[in-house]
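Tutorial handout. Part one gives the primary structure; part two gives the three-dimensional structure as tokens.
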Amino acid sequence: MWGLGAAFYLIGFYQRVAPAVITRELMSEFSLGAAALGNLAAFYYYSYVAIQIPAGLLADRWGPRRVLTAGAAIAAAGTLLFALAPGYAAAGLGRLLIGGSVGVAFVSMLKLAGHWFAPTRFAMIAGLALACGVLGAVSAGVPLRLLVDAFGWRNVMCFAAAVTGLLASAIWVAVRDDPAERGYASYAPTAPARHAPILQSIRQTLGTRNVWLVFLISGAVSGPALTFGGLWGVPFLSTHYGISTSQASMITSLLLVCWAVTGPFVGALSDRLRRRKPLYAIGAVLATAGWCFALLVPDVPLPLLVVLLGLIGCASSAVMVGFAIAKESAPAALAGTAGGIANMGNMLGGMIMQPAVGWILDQRWTGTLANGVRVYDFGAYRAGFTLMLVWLASALVLLVFVRETHCRQTQ
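Part two.
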């Protein structure tokens, strides 16, 4: 039940990171600068972020099975459009469809977890969800690069569209919203006889202080990892450390792998200690310190940078605890809506920062070209990455006001 939703989330993460590996092809084929490329990648985030609250409401009302099936079918269509796009506009529309459709996966997975798993395992399940997603990001690293070199990026994306379409069929056949549909007892709290009006549900969820605090903090903690690992890390590393695109992809994949591997352990530790806020805060502080050193200090020895990025990935995994805080703070019947709002904030970092960093890079561009593609110096990257660090520093202040839930449903 949960695994097919996780497979769809894996595909969503693959689509999120794929532009980082094919930046050269996209910039050359569509004649793009850094700002335009950042916007093309961010079309995914625009629709992904916009769908989060509707996805939560739909998961609460229609159930994860219907939402996941429709999302996977639309994602297949969007991927095919992106693969066959004759120009920038069609490619952007394809990315927009992909982001909006895969955006239902994580919220639906959390909704399924609330029905099929004990509440004391919720944070661990959220961490496992991240692990599945990052596995998709890793597949969009070196493996995607090798496939693109062998078959071309358009053919690879056509194959991804076919796989996503098959997954939509599998979800419809196999997934059920609640254990009661299979004759088992459910872990979900008793639902009200009828749902409140949509706007009232949103107001009620946002009226919970922890929910909107998690919304703001999660974007700051995950934003640098999504921006660096999802787009700008590969050109930064290949330009300033003199390594190949494949090697740079391996390093950014390491960041994401460490994020994924650590997530379930952080979630399980939080469940065991029955504390949320301390682990959330420790992860945010360590991630901020690590990013400051990695992105602002020039000529960091490459082995040290690799280790540092791995540690940053481990620290950033604490963002998954935020989903448990949001779920436990909101009314029990609005778990999907709370998860959607939290994940909306989670993706806000990448949506804002990918094009913003690209815009600053273009402003600082000195005119250097390599094979028709713009090359940016370290000062330009440092100026762009500073935006992420300012948001992270602000999040540390907001963390002070988060209330501990002690792993209990407070409403």
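Part three, for discussion. The first helix runs from residue 2 to 21. Residues 2-177+198-399 form a domain with the Growth Hormone; Chain: A; fold (CATH 1.20.1250.20).
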